């Protein structure tokens, strides 16, 4: 069942009011092809590309000829760093490379709207009014998560301004992360089972629609 509002809770997990979501939460059309393209692009851009093997020119071996050219009955050999030899160089092995590929900004923005719309239609978006000074203790955050009935789920807290205490409170909780609303992306939005958005971050989403 699709609700028409996003429920706002206080820090004690009590319902305060309902927030009116932006229109695109309900009307945004979903394109699986675009979502796949954007998420694949994001995943590729996270790759370090630092894999490396040594070629025959980089293997540390003596440059001396292993044996004379003729008269031994064995095949000719010039150096011990040959790829045909044990511990020799590697032929066509992986080398450092940049996997980053740019994708148009409008595609990213549209895919993010799709992801938010999907989460809204699945009743996976809620809002929490965080106080100006929030506890940095993990046990207090676990209590809040339990009161919101989102325990043992993948949760993303979206906030507008930096909160050191909130980051400290969730850093030791599995599958719970904090992100700034300006930095949210399609991959993280769809990864989450629940999106917990502060009212200020929610207003930012409405303004940036």
Description:
With 209 residues, the chain is an alpha/beta fold. The protein folds into 2 domains: 6-47 and 100-207, Ribosomal protein L4/L1 (Ribosomal Protein L4, Chain: A, 3-Layer(aba) Sandwich), CATH 3.40.1370.10; 49-98, no CATH class. The chain has helices at residues 24-27, 32-45, 105-121, 138-147, 164-170, 186-191, 199-207; strands spanning 6-9, 15-19, 125-128, 155-159, 176-180, 194-197. The protein has a 6-stranded mixed beta sheet with strand order 2-1-3-6-4-5. Helix 4 (138-147) packs across helix 5 (164-170). It starts with 5 loop residues before the first strand and ends with a helix.
Keywords:
single chain; alpha/beta; 2 domains; Ribosomal Protein L4, Chain: A
Show unreliable segments: none
CATH superfamily of the largest domain: Ribosomal protein L4/L1
Lateral strand order in the biggest sheet: 2-1-3-6-4-5
Query: CATH topology of the largest domain, anyone?
Result: Ribosomal Protein L4, Chain: A
Task: Give helix % range.
Answer: 25-40%
Task: Summarize it.
It is built from seven helices and six strands, in the order ββαααβαβαβαβα.
What topology does this entry show?
Elements lengths: L5 E4 L5 E5 L4 H4 L4 H14 L59 H17 L3 E4 L9 H10 L7 E5 L4 H7 L5 E5 L5 H6 L2 E4 L1 H9 L2
Parallel strand pairs: 1-3, 3-6, 4-5, 4-6
Antiparallel strand pairs: 1-2
Helix pairs in contact: 4-5
């Amino acid at each position: 069942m699709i609700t028409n509002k996003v429920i706002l809770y206080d820090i004690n997990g009590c319902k305060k009011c309902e927030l009116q979501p932006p229109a695109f939460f309900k009307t945004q059309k979903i394109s699986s092809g675009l979502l796949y393209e954007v998420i694949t692009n994001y995943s590729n851009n996270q790759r370090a590309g630092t894999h490396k093997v040594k070629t025959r020119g980089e293997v540390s071996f003596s440059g001396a000829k292993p044996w004379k050219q003729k008269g031994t009955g064995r095949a000719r050999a010039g150096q011990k760093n040959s790829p045909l030899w044990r511990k020799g160089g590697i032929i066509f092995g992986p080398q450092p490379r940049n996997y980053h590929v740019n994708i148009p900004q409008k595609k990213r923005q549209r895919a993010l709207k799709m992801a938010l719309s999907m989460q809204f239609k699945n009743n996976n978006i809620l809002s929490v009014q965080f106080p100006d000074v929030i506890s940095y203790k993990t046990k207090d955050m676990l209590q809040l998560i339990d009161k919101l009935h989102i325990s043992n789920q993948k949760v993303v807290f979206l906030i507008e301004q930096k909160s050191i205490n909130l980051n400290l409170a969730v850093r030791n909780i599995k599958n719970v992360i904090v992100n700034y609303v300006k930095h949210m992306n399609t991959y993280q939005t769809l990864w989450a089972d629940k999106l917990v958005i502060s009212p200020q971050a929610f207003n930012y989403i409405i303004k940036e629609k």
